[in-house]
Amino acid sequence: MQSIEAMLRQHISENILFSSNGYPYPDDASLLENGIIDSMNVMELVLFLEETLSINVEDVEIVPENFDSVSNLAEFARQKQSLLVRD
Predict the structure, then answer these.
(1) Closest CA to 27 of 62, 3, 44, 59
(2) Are 70 and 27 in contact, with CB atoms under 8 Å apart?
(3) What angle do CA 46, 79, 66 make, to 5 degrees?
(4) Radius of gyration of the chain from Cα atoms?
(5) 62 Cβ partners below 8 Å, 6+ apart?
(6) Would you state the pLDDT for residue 86?
(7) What was the pLDDT predicted at 84?
(8) C-beta separation of 39 from 67 below 8 A
(9) Where would I find the Carrier domain in this sequence (predicted)?
(10) Residue 4 three-state SS
(11) CB contact at 8 A, 72 and 4
(12) Judging by beta carbons within 10 Å of its beta carbon (0-12, 13-18, 19+), is residue 4 exposed, middle or buried?
């Protein structure tokens, strides 16, 4: 199974950057500051996480701390998944 980071890199590369050359940034690069994503892309990433990982992203969780890098997104997703396991 692919890591969450790898899934995110692939999704961003193919569906946001429209690149077949992979994701060219380090995982800790700011998606917003580098102009990689905009507000519409954030919503696309929310849907991707919800559909792919079966997690529920609340509106209050859509903040830069969770969505500003591949690393942050992956950590956020892992935290959400761990809550599913406990419930």
Answers:
(1) 3
(2) yes
(3) 45
(4) 12
(5) 42, 46
(6) 64
(7) 73
(8) no
(9) 2-81
(10) helix
(11) no
(12) buried
User: Looking at the domain 4-86, which fold is it?
Assistant: 1.10.1200
Tell me how crowded residue 63 is: count the other CB atoms within 10 A of its CB: 12
**Which H/E stretch holds residue 74?**
helix 70-86
Can you give the pLDDT at residue 87? 55
Backbone angles phi, psi at 8, to 5 degrees: -65, -45
CB 33 within 8 A of CB 71: no
The amino acid occupying position 59 is D
Alpha carbon 64 to chain centroid distance? 11
Q: Which of 1, 2, 5 is nearest to 75 (CA)?
A: 5
Give the pLDDT of residue 85. 66
- Given a cut of 50, the residues of the chain with pLDDT beneath it are none
Largest CA distance in the chain: 39
